[in-house]
Every structure is written in C-alpha cells, then in structure tokens.
Amino acid sequence: MRYCSNTSAGILITISIIMILTGCGADETPPELPLIEYKLVITDSIGVEIGDPNYILGWPVNPTHTPDGDIAIIDTKKCAVFMYTPEGEFIRTIGREGEGPGEFHMPWVMSFCSDGSMLIDDRDGISLFDSNYCFVNQMTWPFIVPSLITALDGGGFVGKAAEFHPEDDKIMIVSTLACWDDDDEDPSVEYFSIECEWIIDQENDQSKYRENSIICCAARNGRVFYSQSSIDEFVIHGCEADGTSFLYIEDESVHRVRKSEDELQTEMDNYVSLMNMITGGAPGTNTDVKLDPYKQTMHKMFIDGEERLWVRLGFYPGIVFRVYDMSGEILFHVMMDYPGNPLDLISWQITGDEHGFLAVNTSQECSQKVYMLTLVEAE
Questions:
Q1: Is the CB of residue 286 less than 8 Å from the CB of residue 276?
Q2: Which of 46, 306, 324, 368 has its CB surrounded by the most CB atoms within 10 Å?
Q3: Do residues 197 and 170 touch, judged by C-beta distance below 8 A?
Q4: Residue 150: per-residue pLDDT
C-alpha cells in the first residue's frame, strides 16, 4: 500500500478544490463530436420583413405539416394559423384574435390527426377543428389547461399538466405527462410526473430548476417518449398508449458540460428578447435571472415519418441529433448545416414528420421565418 506525506496530500486536496471552484474538471469539457452521417440543409423559407401581409410573420412557433403535406404555422402574435403549400405558397389563415368560437388569445401548439382534423392549444382551452378547418368545439378545464403535445388518431391527446400547491414561502409544482380522452379533469393514463418547489421572492436562478421539466414527444398511435431534464444524465423512456414500458435508453458516458461565456451571453440576449416580446419591455422583467452554467444533456425530441426517434443533444455547439430506432439502437447522427456562428442556432427549433423537416428561430432579434429542410448525406 502506498502512502502520501501530509504535504503531498495537502497539495492534492488544494488542487482538487481549485479545479472544482474554477470549473476546470476534465468532466466538464464537451465530449468528442460523433461521426455525422447526415446533415439538415435549408432549401427554402417562408417569411418576409415587408410586402404581402400573408408572408409577414409576427411570432411563428411550432411549424408542422398537415397529413396532406401542406405547411401549418402558428403565429402567436397574430393569433392565427397560417397555411402554405409545400412550396411555400400562401393558402389561407385559420382563426383570429378574439373570444368567439374558433378565435384565440395565445395559440401555441397544434397537432393533426391522420384524418386531417386539428387540435390547437390556446392556453384558455384546446380547440378542435375538422378536416375542413371548421371549428367544432373547445375543450376547457376548471383550472389549468393541459399543454398539448400530440393529437391521437384514436381520439384524445397526449399533453402535460401542472398542479400548483401554495405553501408558506414556496409553491410546490407537480408536472405530469399524461393522456386525456376528452376534457375530463383527470387524465385516462399517466406516464410520468415530477415535483419541484418554487421559492417565492427568490432570485431567478435557473440552475435550481434544471431537473423540473419533462422533455417528451408522442406518435399519433399513442406511443410516448420522455426524459427528465438533466445536466448529467441521459435517460429516455418509451411507453405504449396504455402506459406499458417498451423502451429504455441510457447513455452512461454523459457528463456535465459547462457553457462558454459566449454561450451564456447569447442565451441571456435571447432571454431578454423573449421577455421584451412577452411583457412589452416593462422594466424589471429582464435582468433578474441567473442562467444555469451547465448545458442540458438533451433538448427536444420528435418522431419522424419512419418511426425513428430524433433526440437533440445538448452538449455540442450548433444542432446535433442522435437518431434511434424503436429498439433503442443508434441509427446515425445528424447535424444542422449552417455556415455561420453555431451560437446563432441556440434558439432554433427543428421538427420533422413524414413530409420533411421544418425549423424556426425563436429569437425575436431576427426576421421571422420558417425554414424548410432536407436530409442529405454528409460529405
């Protein structure tokens, strides 16, 4: 057995403390970029700064395809859905701002069933439109409306709900991923839930809430995929529509990765931009935030038209997806093809389905566009 002298031991302890305090631990560096077999290439876009108002987008979010392949874009600022052909030609709008049937306050998410019917999450309720985009009815709840994830072909939808339980100096928040058959208050199936506490009057330190969100997606047939947000774990669960587990993915090589100063500044700029958009630039709403210095191991996930699970990895610059089959095997890795600074892509959101891939830059500092993407082999 080998022993160290007191002096040597003291030096080792001191070095360890310095490494921890300065963030110089070897486990905080980004892992090596995987082999990139495919790239997502921008082929076209929808949106102009001036000109035809049907192409001027105020705040586009969550673009998707209809079952027929048309492009549907929610414009949260204009309180309407804009419909375009696959080539980007304007077709029509659905809804407008208001309180009447088929009108919206703040539409945020939409999802189509295979028959062309559509659900739109408006925060005040979830509205159902038929395949001709005529308003049918609005589902409402007595308290907080579930957040729509995916409409199901068999009826109902997968969504997330939050319950708030006030206490003396904090609020306990329970977030649940579940399936609702209709507007019943209680879901028919619960897949996963997490609990966190929000301390009232506490500094907005986002590192305290790094594990309080559910990253998830669902297929129209009811299969659900989810992960709990984390900076040092990479675990994905897959469930059948009835909640039965059929998939478990874990990457044990994942470790904490620290954000660079440029990444933190870009994230802060995007945060301020978003808060200005939401609050109209009210004072005191932008600066009281402390960003998490570590990267999330994953961001979004979605199911493509070939029943492959796309997971956006959080510890690489730019946008990198790891694509799995339904057995949990890694098929390939994909990177967004972008000639500029990878930091520009921090606020981009990408999704895909059987008709292709769409992207949007959620930063309010940029002209508002929706991008059409194509998957090509990497050179």
A1: yes
A2: 46
A3: yes
A4: 97
337: left (phi over 0), alpha (psi -120 to 50) or beta: beta
Res 297: pLDDT: 96
Looking at the DSSP bridge assignments, the partners of residue 150 are: 158
Q: List the domain boundaries for the chain.
A: 34-59+297-379
pLDDT tens digits along 315-324: 998 999 999 9
Report d(CA 352, CA 360) in Å as an integer: 12
- Going by their DSSP bridges, the two strands 126-129 and 135-139 should be labelled as antiparallel
* Separation of alpha carbons 43 and 358, rounded Å: 10
Sheet with strand 109-112: strands edge to edge: 109-112, 118-121, 126-129, 135-139
Model pLDDT, residue 21: 38
Helices (H) and strands (E) in the chain, counts: 2, 26
| DSSP label at residue 265 | H
- Judge whether 370 and 71 are in contact, CB under 8 Å: yes
Q: Which two structure tokens, joined as six digits, stand for 253?
A: 């090589």
The least confident of 48-62, 197-211, 304-318, 348-362 is: 197-211
Give dist(CA 299, CA 231) in Å, integer: 11
List Cα–Cα distances, 24 to 16, 50, 256, 266, 364, in angstroms.
Answer: 10, 48, 12, 22, 34
- Burial group, residue 292, by CB count within 10 angstroms (0-12, 13-18, 19+): middle
What is the model's pTM? 0.88
Sheet holding 245-250, edge to edge: 214-218, 224-228, 235-239, 245-250
